[in-house]
Amino acid sequence: MPSFSVLRGLVLCLSMTLLACQHNGLIKPGDKAWQATPPVLVNPAAATPGAIFQAGRGANLFVDHRANQVGDVVTINLVEKTDASKQSTTTTAKDSSVAIPTGNLLGGPVTFKGRDLLDTSISSNQDFKGQGASSQSNRLSGSITVTVAEVLANGNLRVQGEKWVTINQGEEFIRVAGTIRPVDVGPDNSVPSWKVADARITYSGKGMLNDANAMGWLGRLFQSVLAPL
């Protein structure tokens, strides 16, 4: 049977492999889950030879060009800014004392070398002081055009999409998914991100610059719950 040290080495190697696989370099463009949803194809009307009017080939001057069906595109304006802070201070103090009167034994005090043996008193002092503070803020601005993936039963639109930008030796990407109301879509076919329900916004990158700012797999191992200390 393998010794305990061998089993421990196998577990350590497996943990290193799993942590190494968590690197965001596995994220790449062309993921099928984030591909643009094609529009619903409608069979064109049959041509009418010799007629001036051809069904299905007219131009409607009063059509609403805002997204309202599967495959339509809509621009999401990223306006994300959050600030959170918390501070707490607690101070408590308690002083207590108990004095027991001098007792008598056989009609007189009990002493030893002039010291009253039955004279008793108890006192205690308790002090506590705690203080904590926490703050967090983030900001994201920009825009991304996504496609309508599904029209829900109540008319709301489920949208999703991604944008990849390659700069020098690195790639930056933005992914947005969520649900919007058609009434919130502006005349320019755009909607602010704070009006996207169940929004899932991802902004990250890959490449040499991103790798330089990432902790190595060995460091992540010692920072994980698998670390022995």
Account of the protein in words:
The protein contains 3 helices and 10 strands; from the N terminus they run H-E-E-E-E-E-E-E-E-E-E-H-H. The chain has 229 residues and is mostly beta strands. Among the domains are: 69-81 and 137-229, no CATH class; 95-133, no CATH class. The chain has a 6-stranded mixed sheet with strand order 9-1-6-7-8-10. A two-stranded antiparallel sheet has the order 2-3. Helix 1 (4-21) packs across helix 3 (217-223).
Uncertain regions spanning at least 5 consecutive residues = none
Question: Roughly what fraction of the amino acids lie in strands?
Answer: over 45%
Number of strands: 10
* H/I helix tally: 3
Write down the overall geometry.
Answer: elongated
Along the chain, the helix and strand elements come as HEEEEEEEEEEHH
For the report, how would you describe the main beta sheet? 6 strands, mixed
What is the average per-residue confidence, as pLDDT, rounded to a whole number?
77
Report the structural category.
mainly beta
- Radius of gyration, whole Å: 36 Å
Span of the ends, CA to CA = 28 Å
Helix content: 10-25%
Question: Largest sheet, order of strands side by side?
Answer: 9-1-6-7-8-10
